[in-house]
Specification:
449 residues; alpha/beta; two-stranded parallel ribbon; binds beta-D-glucopyranose
């Protein structure tokens, strides 16, 4: 009799446990951590880990004339205008890097400054970038240069930009010119920033230039970005095999809003494939979205990871950014952009790119938060994830916070504030936020150990 009771009790317990697991899974199919039980101060980084911040030319330099300024005009968006006036204030801004204790700075070169008209080159502008590099090196900060961060000259946009494979030679020429001038001092290069964001925002959602909405064009641009990256990689490596060339890849995760929905799950898998999987396959096999791009195979010396969030997918996915309304789990906090803070996904993103088998540089991670109420926790959680991943054997070499200071957030204008420094755009005054102080002290503790 007692055996019978015991077996019933054990089976009851197992059934209860199973039901609990299923119930929890129904709520959150993707991993979530109990952050309250985690000691976020328990972090450690290797001695040679690089601490950085990231920016992009169009978002900070000011007074540009490129595909983006044309788009701002055409779509009546907030104008980038003077931005952070960084073109004139860069020396002061670099002092902020030093004050934070940074050892790497990721920034981009503005093609439209160097080649405002097709074939006519502005060497003075190139010289300014060269001075920036010297200045960074004299501060003990590694320059990490991106060749294309969403912006390019108007004449190139008019020729079709990345939508026409015949235009890739122009991108290659520009890249070679910059490389010839700077590669004696710059060892780490990103060819292109976030190919998938560029193609979907510009050609599916129409929110970025050229403001088109065509799946066919989006796929074409995705393939040409891969070709462009690979061409630049091959040429630059043939010139200086010892430099390290990578790409900055935004890994956004797509999770089904409802685990058991017959729609949400396939939608999430499809979007994940288009956004992440197809790109990774391109680099690993030289085949991407029904095209053979053999030169893309193994065209990375490192992979730059930009991580921000996960998207919860369902039947009503937006077809334009006006419709973008981000779902979040009940226990998640929404960032000012609307999407949730989901640091757990950072680990998943790292695991996703690990099979590429090259070192990882975190080229962007940050949060829109004008009041700086979320950023300290955001920073701590994401650094903890990196620290754990390194302990588990992932080869992560650097972290670049997005961003050094508030700047022009593309279609959102100046409404989204991502800076470790707050910028008053009337006076151009920069003020270190509390999260900036926190970052500085984390760097100090980590490097003094
Ligand atoms: C881009 C940055 C942008 C940031 C925050 C990334 O997708 O590379 O230019 O400002 O996200 O939205």
């Amino acid at each position: 009799m007692w055996e019978y009771l015991l077996i019933s009790a054990i089976s009851g317990l197992i059934a209860f446990k199973l039901a609990l697991i299923l119930y929890r899974r129904r709520k959150y199919p993707e991993p979530h951590y109990e952050w309250g039980n985690i000691d976020l101060d328990e972090i450690s980084f290797p001695d040679n880990f690089l601490w950085g911040a990231a920016t992009a030319a169009h978002q900070i330099e000011g007074n540009l004339s490129n595909n983006w300024t044309a788009h701002e005009e055409k779509k009546n968006l907030e104008k980038s205008g003077e931005a952070c006036n960084h073109w004139n204030l860069w020396k002061d801004d670099f002092q902020m890097l030093t004050d934070l204790g940074l050892t790497s700075y990721r920034f981009s070169i503005e093609w439209s400054r160097l080649e405002p008209e097709e074939g006519s080159w502005n060497n003075d502008a190139l010289d300014v970038y060269s001075q920036m590099i010297d200045d960074l090196i004299s501060r003990g900060i590694r320059p990490t240069v991106t060749l294309h961060h969403f912006s390019h000259p108007v004449w190139w946009e008019e020729k079709g930009g990345f939508a026409d494979e015949n235009n890739l030679n122009d991108f290659l020429n520009y890249s070679e010119r910059v490389f010839d001038a700077l590669s004696d001092r710059v060892d780490v290069w990103c060819t292109i920033n976030e190919p998938t964001v560029f193609s979907t925002m510009g050609y599916t959602l129409g929110q970025f230039p050229p403001g088109k909405r065509s799946i066919r064009l989006t796929l074409k641009v995705m393939r040409n970005l891969m070709r462009g990256h690979a061409m630049v990689y091959r040429l630059l490596k043939s010139k200086r095999p010892d430099v390290r060339i990578g790409i900055a890849k935004n890994v956004t995760l797509f999770d089904p809003l409802n685990r058991w929905s017959p729609i949400d799950w396939p939608v999430s898998r499809l979007l994940d494939w288009l956004w992440n999987g197809a790109w990774r396959k391109g680099i690993m096999t030289g085949k991407m979205l029904f095209a053979k791009i053999p030169e893309a195979k193994d065209s990375l010396d490192f992979v730059g990871l930009n991580y921000y969030t996960h998207f919860l997918t369902g039947l009503f996915m937006p077809t334009s950014t006006e419709e973008l309304e981000f779902a979040k789990r009940s226990h998640e906090v929404a960032t000012e952009f609307g999407y949730p803070m989901y640091a757990e996904g950072f680990r998943r993103a790292i695991e996703f790119i690990a099979p590429l088998n090259v070192p990882i540089e975190i080229t962007e991670n940050g949060v829109a938060d004008a009041q700086d109420s979320l950023r300290p926790e955001h920073l701590k959680r994401h650094l903890w994830i990196i620290s754990e991943a390194i302990k588990d054997g992932y080869d992560i070499r650097s972290y670049h916070h997005w961003s050094l200071m508030d700047n022009f957030e593309w279609a959102e204008g100046y409404s989204m504030r991502f800076g470790l420094h707050e910028v008053d755009f009337n006076t151009q005054e920069r003020t270190l936020r509390q999260s900036g102080e926190l970052y500085r002290s984390i760097i100090r503790n980590s490097t003094s150990k």
